[in-house]
């Protein structure tokens, strides 16, 4: 876990040496209206808007959080779900350390579409990418169309992280167990040391920003 094995008491400039910085490119994929933008807004700003405008192309946001002796900076690409923007997706997930594929638990079509996104990521994204499957809108589970056990079994079969989320209630709106490269390591495939970073208990700190990308 992050924070283990910090600098010893005899190390000069120990405080500065202990302040490691990790940077992650994170992309969200999924059908339109499943709540990707709402999840990002909840994570970055702690806000929820009942009526969220559809993303055009992609939106870029950053969030910096502090976890023990590590500063984690997320570069978050929230992609549009409309079919006409599908061809743009590879430019956003290319080079990403993690992807969250979102579906709506009340809509089986969005679950099927999520499976297609997973296949595409497994085929075309970095071999080291961590893929999480998120079943959003858990606050209206009384309208559920995709059973938790079905999604969990699919995630297990495909080595995915899995959670059900609600941007509205902030249920599981953290970023779970992403890989953590050693700050001075290379970005290449061979021998990269990775451990889990679980931000469930961590409050976002530092600056966050948002800007729109893609056509109008």
From TrEMBL:
Keywords: Endosome, GTP-binding, Hydrolase, Lipoprotein, Nucleotide-binding, Prenylation, Protein transport, Transport. One of its GO terms (cellular component) is plasma membrane. Its main location: membrane. It comes from the Eukaryota. SMART domains: RAB, RAN, RAS, RHO. Its EC number is 3.6.5.2. Residues 172-216 are annotated as: Disordered. The keyword Nucleus does not apply. SUPFAM superfamilies: P-loop containing nucleoside triphosphate hydrolases. It catalyses: GTP + H2O = GDP + phosphate + H(+). Residues 200-216 have a biased composition (Polar residues). CDD domains: Rab5_related. One of its GO terms (biological process) is protein transport. The keyword Transmembrane does not apply. It is a lipid-anchor. Pfam families: Ras (PF00071). It is found in: Cell membrane; Early endosome membrane. GO terms for molecular function: G protein activity; GTP binding. Belongs to the small GTPase superfamily. Rab family. PANTHER family: PTHR47978. This is small monomeric GTPase. It comes from Oreochromis aureus (Israeli tilapia).
């Amino acid at each position: 876990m992050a924070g283990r094995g910090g600098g010893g008491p005899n190390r000069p400039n120990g405080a500065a040496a202990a302040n490691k910085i990790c940077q992650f490119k994170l992309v969200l994929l999924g059908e339109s209206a499943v709540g990707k933008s709402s999840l990002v807004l909840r994570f970055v700003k702690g806000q929820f808007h009942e009526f969220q405008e559809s993303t055009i192309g992609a939106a870029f946001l950053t969030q910096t959080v502090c976890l023990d002796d590590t500063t984690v900076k997320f570069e978050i690409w929230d992609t549009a779900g409309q079919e006409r923007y599908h061809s743009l997706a590879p430019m956003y997930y290319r080079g990403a350390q993690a992807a969250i594929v979102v579906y709506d638990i009340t809509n089986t079509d969005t679950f099927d579409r999520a499976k297609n996104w997973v296949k595409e990521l497994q085929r075309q994204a970095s071999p080291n990418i961590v893929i999480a499957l998120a079943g959003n809108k858990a606050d209206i589970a009384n309208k559920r169309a995709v059973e938790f056990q079905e999604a969990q079994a699919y995630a297990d079969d495909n080595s995915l992280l899995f959670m059900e989320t609600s941007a509205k209630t902030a249920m599981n709106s953290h970023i779970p167990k992403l890989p953590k490269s050693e700050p001075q390591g290379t970005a290449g495939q061979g021998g990269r040391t990775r451990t889990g970073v679980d931000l469930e208990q961590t409050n976002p700190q530092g600056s966050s920003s948002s800007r729109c990308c893609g056509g109008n």
